[in-house]
């Protein structure tokens, strides 16, 4: 199984960041995809190539500021769990941690690259604490 984790330290309160990225139907606003559609606990994302992935929304926890999902009904991906958390560091800073476990492991490379783009977008939107950045 391939695993990937990306994070970004942000100059913004955790709740403010969560209100932006914690909406399952708004992934396309900060992640490198072109569209998102929600029906109940299902989400479909459209990649820039036009490929559509179906996902099960497993958890939207507003207290923990955690979102979890799994790619489903995909003949190429046999197992997947994606998670992102928004964790308060101080009242005015937070860290966003995005992680994915996926099989076959080669897909971790593509998901990791996309997650890195998403983290860079958040850094541009909110700013980063001095001497910090995407990891």
How would you explain this protein's 3D organization?
With 135 residues, the protein is of the alpha+beta class. It has a domain at 2-23 and 56-126: 2-Layer Sandwich (Alpha-D-Glucose-1,6-Bisphosphate, Chain A, domain 4). 21% of the residues lie in helices and 44% in strands. It has 2 helices and 7 strands. A 7-stranded antiparallel β-sheet has the order 1-7-6-5-4-3-2. A hairpin with a 6-residue loop joins strand 5 and strand 6 (79-90). The longest helix has 20 residues, at 107-126. The model has no long low-confidence stretch (mean pLDDT 95).
Shape: globular
Q: What is the percentage of strand-forming residues?
A: 35-45%
Low-confidence stretches: none
Encode the helix/strand succession as letters.
EHEEEEEEH
- Global mean pLDDT: 95
For the biggest β-sheet, the strand order reads 1-7-6-5-4-3-2
Q: Span between N and C termini? A: 21 Å
Please compute the radius of gyration using only Cα atoms: 14 Å
User: What's the β-strand tally?
Assistant: 7
What is the CATH level 1 assignment of the domain at 2-23 and 56-126?
A: Alpha Beta
CATH superfamily of the domain at 2-23 and 56-126: START domain
Q: What class, by secondary structure content?
A: alpha+beta
**Count of helix runs:** 2
- CATH architecture classification of the domain at 2-23 and 56-126: 2-Layer Sandwich
Approximate helicity band: 10-25%
Task: Give the tags.
7 strands; 2 helices; 44% strand; 135 residues; alpha+beta; Alpha-D-Glucose-1,6-Bisphosphate, Chain A, domain 4
Write the layout of secondary structure elements.
Elements: E1 2-10, H1 14-21, E2 35-39, E3 42-46, E4 52-61, E5 66-72, E6 79-90, E7 93-103, H2 107-126
Antiparallel strand pairs: 1-7, 2-3, 3-4, 4-5, 5-6, 6-7
């Amino acid at each position: 199984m391939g695993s990937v984790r990306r994070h970004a330290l942000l100059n913004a309160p955790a709740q403010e960041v969560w209100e932006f990225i914690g909406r399952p139907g708004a992934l396309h606003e900060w992640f490198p995809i072109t569209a998102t559609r929600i029906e109940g606990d299902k989400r479909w994302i459209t990649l820039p190539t036009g490929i559509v992935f179906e996902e099960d929304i497993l958890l939207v926890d507003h207290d923990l500021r955690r979102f979890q999902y799994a790619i489903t009904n995909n003949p190429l991906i046999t197992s997947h769990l994606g998670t992102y958390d928004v964790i308060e560091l101080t009242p005015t800073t937070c860290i966003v941690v995005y992680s994915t476990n996926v099989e076959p492991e080669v897909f971790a490379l593509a998901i990791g690259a996309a997650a890195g783009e998403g983290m860079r977008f958040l850094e541009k939107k909110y700013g980063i604490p001095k001497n910090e950045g995407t990891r």
